[in-house]
Design goal:
Layout: H1 2-26, H2 30-37, H3 42-53, H4 58-72, H5 78-95, H6 104-132, H7 140-153, H8 185-198, H9 200-210, H10 219-235, H11 240-246, H12 253-274, H13 282-297
Helix pairs in contact: 2-3, 2-6, 3-6, 3-11, 4-5, 4-6, 5-6, 6-8, 7-8, 8-9, 8-10, 8-12, 9-12, 10-12, 12-13
């Protein structure tokens, strides 16, 4: 409680004085100092995001509300994105009294930060929409994704039918995988499919680990559980480090799939290293894994990469 009070006093009273002093001595507003002084990627974008959210300017507050509405409704795309970014930058130039002819580099850096900040918010909306989409066995597109998942994970084996115990070979609980997608909807399937197609060799190695006689687990069920973890990290902002350091343009659903694939790849390695006695240790190991991931994401320089091979067990 005491720490919160100190922070509130600093944010409300001391911070504006410090900003005023630095503006007078450097001739630059806080946003300019961030864009010129902070390392590109997560450090710069997070600092810009914090500065904007702490602003008391009525115009800036209204701008944030407008950008939130645009991204929440997934209208931050294409030509609309360019016009919105241009208008947002011009608003800040006017409010902060920044000369665009002199500070053209600021415009480039600041625009990039805005694209990432509200692209991230839009990504949450896009991911949530997929999660709310129920897997429909009567939908030919949903079914084709399911068959494609099998084909990439088990290329040597042909499915005997749509309803079959073979689905258990890739870690579904029963004879019909649709029942396992209830919690994460179509998002769970699309995550699994992306991992199996875009990182096919690592995914097949991970699948082979799931068949281990001592350390085995249900590949698909664990994968859907990790979809839930990835979504939680996206919602609470922990995944910003990954997105801000990885995205070169407007963050897309592909970036979330890449984040998920990294989590699955690393969880498998962590699971094997833990040498669990049985599947009953899953909850504990999963929680430890989440703590490790959160710790890594606290480093603003963090970048995730998936290797091309997985060691045999």
């Amino acid at each position: 409680m005491m720490n919160f009070s100190i922070w509130w006093v600093f944010a409300y009273y001391v911070r504006p004085i410090v900003k005023w002093f630095l503006r007078k001595t450097t001739g630059l507003c806080e946003l300019q100092r961030i864009c010129y002084g902070e390392i590109s990627g997560a450090p710069r974008i997070k600092a810009v995001e914090y500065s904007l959210n702490m602003s008391r300017s009525r115009q800036v507050i209204q701008l944030i509300e407008h950008l939130n509405d645009v991204s929440d409704n997934q209208r931050f795309t294409g030509a609309n994105e360019r016009e919105i970014l241009k208008g947002a930058v011009n608003t800040v130039l006017l409010v902060k009294n920044i000369n665009p002819r002199v500070h053209y580099q600021f415009i480039t850096s600041f625009s990039k930060c805005l694209e990432q900040i509200w692209g991230y918010r839009q990504l949450i909306a896009e991911v949530e929409e997929l999660r709310r989409t129920t897997f429909d066995s009567d939908n030919i597109h949903h079914e084709s994704k399911l068959y494609e998942l099998w084909a990439n994970l088990m290329p040597q084996d042909t499915l005997e039918g749509r309803i079959t115990k073979q689905w258990q070979d890739i870690g579904f609980q029963g004879e019909d995988p649709k029942t396992d997608f209830r919690g994460m909807g179509l998002l769970g399937l699309e995550n699994l499919l992306f991992f199996a197609t875009q990182y096919r060799t690592p995914a097949q190695h991970v699948l082979s680990h799931s068949h281990h006689p001592s350390y085995g687990y249900c590949f698909a069920i664990v994968g859907i559980n990790l979809t839930s973890l990835a979504l939680v990290l996206l919602r609470d902002g922990s995944a910003k480090t990954f997105v801000y350091n990885t995205s070169k343009s407007l963050p897309s659903i592909r970036l979330f799939h890449q984040f998920y694939s990294y989590l699955f790849y690393e969880f498998d390695r962590f699971w094997v290293e833990c040498k669990p006695k049985d599947i009953m240790e899953f909850s504990n190991i999963r929680n430890r894994f989440e703590s490790n991931v959160r710790l890594v994401l606290q480093d603003p320089g963090t970048e995730f990469r998936i290797g091309v091979t997985v060691d045999d067990v």
